[in-house]
Amino acid sequence: MGKRRRPKGRPVNGILLLDKPIGGSSNKILQEVKHIFKAAKAGHTGNLDPLASGMLPLCFGEATKISAFLLDADKRYQGTCKLGVRTTTADCEGEVIEERPVPELNESQIEAVLENFRGEIQQIPPMYSALKQNGVPLYKLAREGKVVEREPRTVQIYKLELVNFSGDELELSVHCSKGTYIRTLVEDIGEQLNCGAHLIQLRRTLVGPFEESGMVTMEQIEAAAEEGMHALDALLLPMEDALKSWPDIILTETSLFYILQGQPVQVSPAPADGLVRLFSQGGKFIGVGQVLDDGRIGPKRLMQQKPKS
Question: Known catalytic residue: 248?
Answer without folding.
Answer: no
